[in-house]
Amino acid sequence: MAKKIKGFGGKSWGGGSGKGSSQINLQMAKVQQMLLEFEEKRQALEESFAERTVEVSVGGGVLKLTATLTYELKDIEVMDEDLAEDWETFKDLLIAGVNQVMQEVTRSREEAYEQLQSEISPNLPGIM
After folding, report:
1. How far is Cα 23 from Cα 120, in angstroms, rounded to an integer?
2. Which residue did the predictor score with more confidence, 21 or 18?
3. What is the CATH number of the domain that holds 61?
4. For the chain, which has fewer Cβ within 10 Å, the N-terminal or C-terminal residue?
5. Residue 80: inside a domain, yes or no?
């Protein structure tokens, strides 16, 4: 037959109704509200990425690429008509341009997230 085990000093470890527990509950409610607000802002930021664009130029400006912050290449402009005839150079510039514009997209997204994080972090030490 198993023995019943009591807490130290016979105290109940249940959710007491003391002053300390109500303070903790208030703080937890505030933290939960801040996290909900953060999630709403994060979702709005994600949605805004489809509208925001970055541009890069390569080859001294003969090729310009535009992409959204959702990693979609939106436009390629060739500023030099002779470039269209030189396929190898065009291909090299295109690869370099796509790589560069995607790096810019990543950098812009990181900046946007850092800004959002800085808005909420002072209120939630140790969370972000």
Report:
1. 21
2. 21
3. 3.30.1310.10
4. N
5. yes
Are the CB atoms for 78 and 63 separated by under 8 Å?
yes
Give the span between the Cα atoms of 19 and 39, in whole angstroms: 31
Asked if 53 and 68 count as a contact pair (C-beta separation under 8 A), the reply is: yes
pLDDT at 128: 45
pLDDT digits (tens, 9 = 90+) for 26-79: 888 888 998 898 899 999 999 999 999 999 999 888 889 999 999 999 999 988
Find the domain containing 126 and state its range.
53-128
Nearest to 80 by CA among 71, 72, 70, 90: 90
Cα 70–63–69 angle (5° rounding)? 10
Task: Identify whether 94 is part of a domain.
Answer: yes
Residue 15 lies in a domain: no
Torsion angle of the four alpha carbons 107, 109, 114, 115, in this order, in degrees rounded to the nearest 10: 120
Q: Is a pLDDT exceeding 60 seen at residue 127? A: no
